[in-house]
Design goal:
With 450 residues, this protein is mainly alpha-helical. It has a single domain (19-209, 221-439), classed as MFS general substrate transporter like domains (Growth Hormone, Chain: A, Up-down Bundle), CATH 1.20.1250.20. The chain has helices at 20-40, 47-54, 58-86, 88-105, 112-122, 128-139, 145-176, 185-189, 191-207, 216-219, 221-224, 229-234, 237-268, 272-284, 286-329, 333-357, 366-391, 415-435, and strands at 393-400, 406-413. A hairpin with a 5-residue loop joins β1 and β2. The radius of gyration is 21 Å and the shape is globular. Belongs to the major facilitator superfamily. Nitrate/nitrite porter (TC 2.A.1.8) family. It holds the Pfam family MFS_1.
C-alpha cells in the first residue's frame, strides 16, 4: 500500500500529487504561505507612490521598513509555542483572519503615523512561516523533511516576488478602470491581498489537518502537552547557531524585497513597473533556489549528518556575502540584476539549508525551534534596516518627468549600506563555519516528531 494512503509521514515528496492528507496539506500550506508573503510585501513596490503622496522622508522610510519586520519577531516567537500546543490548523486560520485587517485598512492612511502603525501590524503575517515549516515537518519523514520544508518555504517566499511584479499592475488596473487616481491607486491595490488572506483562512480550516492521523483536539494532544517547548529550544545552543545564520540569509532577503524597488528607481532611474519587475526577479528565485537548498542539504545530511549540513550552510553564506558586496558596487542596471540573481541563489539556498536542520534540533519542540530561528531572520532584517537608515545617502538628481520637463528630485542611495551588509554576511559565514567543529556530537539526523 502506498504511504500516501496511510496516516504516517511520507517518505518522499511528489509535488505533482494531491492525494492523501499529507500532500493536500502540503499544497494548501505553501499556497497559503505564498499569499501571506504576497500580502506582507504588497506595499513594497508601491512605496514610491506612498512616499510621494504622504511626503515620507528618508528617516521615515527607514522606520517603516523596521516596523514591517519588527512585529514579526515577537509574532514568530509566540506562534511557535502556540503551534506546539494547539496545532497549526487553528493557529494559522486565526493568524490569517487577524492579519487581513491591517492589510485591508492600510489604504485609509492619511499620515506617516497611521501608515507606520498599519505597516507594523501587517508584519505579524510573517509568523505564517513558522506554521508552514511546522506543518511540512510533521507531514514528512526525516529523510525528506529538508526538501519538503525548503520547497514549501521557497514556493511561499515567491509570493513576495509576485507582489513586486503584479501590485504596480493591479494599481494601474484600478486607475485604468477609473476607480481612482494614480496617487490613490496604492490604497485600492492593497484590498486585493487582504481579501486573499480571508479566502485562504477558510480553505485552511476546511481542508487541512494538524497531523497525518488527525487534529490535535481529536487526538487530545493539547491537553497532554505540559512541557515548556520554548525553553527546550532556548537551552539548545544549536538553535542559536541557526538563528544567527538565518538572520544573515532570510534577514537579507526581506531587506532586498523591501528596498529593491526604491533602490532600482533611485539608483538606476528605473520606472515603477521596471523596478517592480527587477525586484520581482529576486523574489521569484525562491521557486527553485530554496527547494534546491533543501534537496542538497538532505543529500549532504545522509552522508555527513548535521555537521555536513552546517558546512554547506556556511559556504552558501560566504558566497552570498561576496555577491552582495559586488552588487552594492555596480552602477549598471544589467550587471546589478545579474549579481542580484547570483547572490539571491546562494541566499535562498541557505534559507533552505537552515530549515533542513531545524526539525532535528529537538523532536519535542519543532514549533518553538522554528519560531526562534524564524524570528532570527526578522531580527536580522530589523538590524539591517537600521544599517540602511544610517548609511543611506540623500541626494538630488535632475530627471525628466512624464511631461518632458526637467526637474530636481530627491533620491536615496543605499550603495554603502549594501557594501557593509556584504561584509557582515561574510563574517557570519566564517563564524558558522567555525562553529561546525562544535557539533560533532550529532553525526546523523535522528528520528523526529511525526
Amino acid at each position: 500500500m502506498s504511504s500516501i494512503s496511510t496516516n504516517q509521514p511520507l517518505t518522499r515528496l511528489n509535488i505533482f500529487s494531491g492525494k492523501g492528507v499529507q500532500m493536500r496539506t502540503f499544497h494548501i500550506t505553501w499556497l497559503t504561505f505564498f499569499f501571506c508573503f504576497f500580502a506582507w510585501f504588497g506595499m513594497a513596490s508601491l512605496m514610491p507612490l506612498a512616499k510621494e503622496q504622504l511626503h515620507l522622508t528618508k528617516d521615515q522610510l527607514g522606520n517603516i521598513q523596521i516596523a514591517s519586520v519588527s512585529a514579526t519577531i515577537i509574532a514568530r516567537l509566540l506562534i511557535g509555542r502556540l503551534v506546539d500546543k494547539f496545532g497549526p490548523r487553528l493557529v494559522y486560520t486565526w493568524l490569517l483572519v487577524i492579519c487581513s485587517i491591517p492589510v485591508l485598512l492600510i489604504g485609509t492612511s492619511q499620515s506617516y503615523e497611521s501608515f507606520l502603525f498599519f505597516r507594523l501590524a501587517i508584519g505579524v503575517i510573517g509568523a505564517s512561516f513558522v506554521v508552514t515549516q511546522f506543518h511540512t515537518s510533521v507531514m514528512f519523514a526525516p529523510v525528506v523533511k529538508g526538501t519538503a520544508n525548503a520547497t514549501a518555504g521557497g514556493f511561499g517566499n515567491a509570493g513576495a516576488g509576485l507582489a513586486n511584479i503584479t501590485m504596480p499592475l493591479i494599481a494601474a488596473g484600478f486607475v485604468g478602470l477609473g476607480v481612482c487616481t494614480r496617487e490613490d491607486s496604492w490604497r485600492y491595490a492593497m484590498i486585493v491581498p487582504g481579501i486573499l488572506l480571508l479566502v485562504f483562512a477558510f480553505l485552511y480550516l476546511k481542508f487541512t489537518k494538524d497531523l497525518p492521523n488527525g487534529n490535535y483536539k481529536e487526538l487530545g494532544i493539547s491537553n497532554q502537552n505540559k512541557e515548556n517547548t520554548f525553553m527546550l529550544a532556548v537551552r539548545d545552543y544549536r538553535t542559536w547557531v541557526l538563528t544567527v545564520a538565518y538572520a544573515a540569509c532570510f534577514g537579507v532577503e526581506i531587506t532586498i524585497d523591501n528596498f529593491a524597488p526604491i533602490y532600482f528607481t533611485d539608483t538606476f532611474g528605473a520606472s515603477l513597473k521596471i523596478a517592480g519587475i527587477c525586484a520581482g526577479i529576486f523574489g521569484m528565485i525562491n521557486i527553485f533556489a530554496r527547494p534546491l537548498g533543501g534537496i542538497v542539504a538532505d543529500k549532504v545530511g545522509k552522508k555527513y549528518g548535521f555537521s555536513g549540513k552546517n558546512l554547506l550552510l556556511a559556504l552558501l553564506l560566504i558566497v552570498e556575502g561576496v555577491g552582495v558586496i559586488f552588487f552594492g558596487m555596480t552602477n549598471e542596471l544589467g550587471v546589478a540584476i545579474f549579481l542580484m540573481f547570483l547572490f539571491g541563489m546562494s541566499l535562498k539556498m541557505a534559507n533552505g539549508a537552515t530549515y533542513s536542520l531545524v526539525p532535528f534540533i529537538n523532536p519535542k519542540a519543532v514549533g518553538s525551534v522554528a519560531g526562534i530561528v524564524g524570528a532570527g531572520g526578522n531580527i536580522g532584517a530589523m538590524l539591517i534596516a537600521f544599517l540602511f537608515k544610517a548609511k543611506a545617502v540623500k541626494m538630488t538628481k535632475d530627471v525628466i518627468d512624464e511631461a518632458g520637463v526637467s526637474q530636481t528630485k530627491d533620491l536615496i542611495d543605499y550603495t554603502n549600506a549594501f557594501f557593509i551588509l556584504g561584509i557582515i554576511i561574510l563574517i557570519t559565514g566564517v563564524v558558522v563555519l567555525a562553529v561546525k567543529l562544535a557539533v560533532k556530537d550529532v553525526k546523523k539526523p535522528q528520528v523526529v516528531l511525526a
